Amino acid sequence: MPPSLSPLSSLPALLSPTVPAVWLAALPDAVAAGLSSGWPWLFTLAEWLIRLAMLVYVPQRRAPAAARTWLLLIFFLPWLGLLLYALFGRIYYPKSRRLKLARINQGIERVRGPLERFAPAQPLPAGVSADAAGLIERLGSYWPMRGNAVELMDSYGTVVARMIADIDGAARQVHLLVYIYAADATARAFTDALLRAAARGVQCRLLVDALGARAGWRAYADELRRGGVEVVQALPMRSLSAVLKGKSARFDLRNHRKILVVDGRIGYIGSQNVIDAESMPGLPNEELVARVTGPVVTQLQAVFLADRYLETGETANGGFIAENFPPPQATGAHTAQMLPSGPGYGTQNAQMALVSMIHRARERVVITTPYFVPDEAFLQALQLACYRGVAVHLVLSQRIDQRFTQAAQEAYFGALLDAGVQIHLYQPAFLHAKHVTIDDEVAMVGSTNMDIRSFALNAEAALVIYDRAVVARMREIQERYFCHSVQVERAAWQRRPLRRRTWQNLCRLADSLL
After folding, report:
1. Phi and psi at residue 341, to the nearest 5°
2. Rounded CA gap, 468 and 440, in Å?
3. SS3 annotation, 313-372
4. Fewer Cβ atoms within 10 Å of its own Cβ: the N or the C terminal residue of the chain?
5. Which pLDDT value is given to residue 13?
6. Could you give the residue numbers annotated as active site?
7. Cβ-based neighbours of 512, under 8 Å, separated by 6 or more
8. Residue 442 DSSP label
C-alpha cells in the first residue's frame, strides 16, 4: 500500500482486477505483465483468507485484549501479521521443557520431606494471608515456611557490597541467576568475586538470560570458565527455523529472575541486576532486594536448580540432591514462601496470586513497579478494591527507559483515577523496584513487573512474606517514595492535550506485545 493512502481509500485499488499503472512501472516487465493479467485477484483473495482464518483462530484460548491487538495488526497488514503471529502469537513451550518441568516438580516433592517441621506453628490469619499461601502453593508448588529472617535493602551500593561480601565468605557453593549481566564496573566486581570463590574451591554457577546478559556473556564467559566457574545461558537464541518447527521457545520468552544463593543458607531476591546503577546517564536505577536466611532459602535454591536443569538437562551434582540442600536452620520469626511464575506453568501464577490478594484486601494496597501494563482482570481488581473503600496506591517512575511502554501505561491512568487509585510518580531516579503490600499482612518482593509480559511471557520469581514487621519496613520505604513523588491529579490529567491522549491510546493497543 502506498504510504500516502489510508486503508479505506486504498481498498478499491486492492479489490481491482488490475494493478495501478504507477506500481507496474516500478516492476520488471515480466512481473508487471503477470500482475496485470490476474495475480491481484489471487493476492487479494489470499489476504482475505488470512484475515478470515485468523478471525476464527486468534481468539481461541486468548484474552480479549490480546486477540484484539493481533487481529488489528493482521487486518491491516495480513502477511506481516501472519509472520509475526507465527513467531510470537502463541506462548509455545517446547515439549522437552515441559517434560523437564514435570521432573522438577517431582524433585521439589523429594526436598519437601525434611522441611515439614518448618510449617507455620499457627495457621496464617484468615483472609489475605491464608488464601494467598494456599493459592501460591497450588500454583507454584512452594509452601509457606516459618523460621526465616528477611532484611529489605533499598540502597543500590549496599546491595552490591553485601552480595559480594557473601560471595567472598562462601565455603561450598555460589549460585547466581540474573537477567542482565553487563560489561561494566559492577559486573567486573561480581566476576572477580566469583573467580576468587572458585579459586578457593567453592562450586560457582552463573546462569544468565541469553538476551539480557549478552554483553556480559561476551565480556566474561570465557574468563569465568577458565577460572572454574560454570556459566550457562538461559533460553539461548535459536534459529528462526527452530522456532517455527517447535524445537525452541519463542524469542521473547525470557528468564527475568534475579536470585543469589550462597552455601544454600543465604539468599537474595529482588529487582537488581548485575549492572551499574548509572547504566543510563541521568537516570540512575533504584531497586529493592531482600536478603533472606532460614528454611525458605531452600526454595530459592530449588528455583535456581530448576532453571539450570531446564538448560543443561544435568541432574548429577546439580539437581535435587542432598548435597545442594544443607539441613535448614531457623534464623528468625518470619513466614515466607516462593512464588515462581512463567510460561511453563500453564497458568499466570503471579497475576492470579496478586488479583486474588487484591480482591481480599480490606484496608490498603500499595504496588510499586517500573512497568504497569495490566490485563483486564488486574485492572478490574484495583478498581473494585477502591470501590470497596480500600486505599490503593500505585507507585511508578516519572521517567522510564521505554517511552512506548510509558505511553501505554499512562493510557490506564484515567480509569484508575476515576476509581480512586492514587498514582505517585517517583522523581529522583528510575524506580526499578517491584514490590507489593496488602493490608498489614503480606509483602511481596521480586522480579515481577505488573504488566502482561511479566505475567505471561517471562520466568519470574518473588518472595511472599507473611509478617507485620516486614510489611511495616516495606511501608517505610513506600512512604519515602510518596514523599519524593508527584501525585497525578484527576482534573489535571483530564486536561492533557488531545495529541498526547491519542498517542497513549494507540500505544495501549499494543499492550499484549510490550
Report:
1. -150, 160
2. 6
3. CCCCCCCCCHHHCCCCCCCCCEEEEEEEECHHHCCCHHHHHHHHHHHHCCCEEEEECCCE
4. N
5. 40
6. 256, 258, 263, 432, 434, 439
7. 63, 65, 66, 69, 70, 452
8. E
Angstrom CA distances, 272 to 108, 269, 281, stand at: 26, 8, 18
Q: Which three cell numbers stand for residue 123?
A: 495457621
Question: In sequence order, which residues have a C-beta less than 8 Å from that of residue 262 and are 6 or more positions away?
Answer: 166, 167, 169, 170, 173, 174, 175
Cell of 50: 488470512
C-alpha cell belonging to residue 317? 551434582
CB contact at 8 A, 464 and 132: yes
Q: Identify whether the C-beta of residue 392 lies closer than 8 Å to the C-beta of residue 420.
A: yes
Within a 10 A sphere around the Cβ of 253, how many other Cβ atoms? 23
Cβ neighbors of 135 (< 8 A, separation 6 or more) are 352, 353, 356
- What is the rounded distance in angstroms from the CA atom of residue 168 to the CA atom of residue 206? 15
Strands 391-397 and 422-426: parallel
Instruction: Provide the pLDDT confidence category of residue 214 given band limits of 50, 70 and 90.
Output: very high
Any idea what DSSP says for residue 488? P
Q: Which of 167, 368, 387 is nearest to 287 (CA)?
A: 368
What is the C-alpha separation between 31 and 367, in angstroms, rounded?
58
CB-CB contact of 486 with 425 (8 Å): yes
Yes or no: say if 132 and 442 are a contact pair by the CB < 8 Å rule. Answer: yes
How far apart are alpha carbons 215 and 371 in whole angstroms?
A: 23
CA atoms of 156 and 501, how far apart (whole Å):
35
- The model carries a pTM of 0.85
95-341 is a CATH 3.40.630.30 domain:
no
CA distances from 303 to 307, 346, 466 (A): 6, 17, 20
Q: What topology is assigned to 349-513 in CATH?
A: Endonuclease; Chain A (3.30.870)
- What's the Rg (C-alpha) of the chain? 25
Domain boundaries, the chain: 11-88, 95-341, 349-513
Distance CA 347, CA 355 (A): 13
C-alpha cell recorded at residue 257: 529472575
pLDDT at 33 over 60: no
Retrieve residue 13's grid coordinates: 485499488
Strands 259-262 and 266-270: antiparallel
> Amino acid letter at 92?
Y
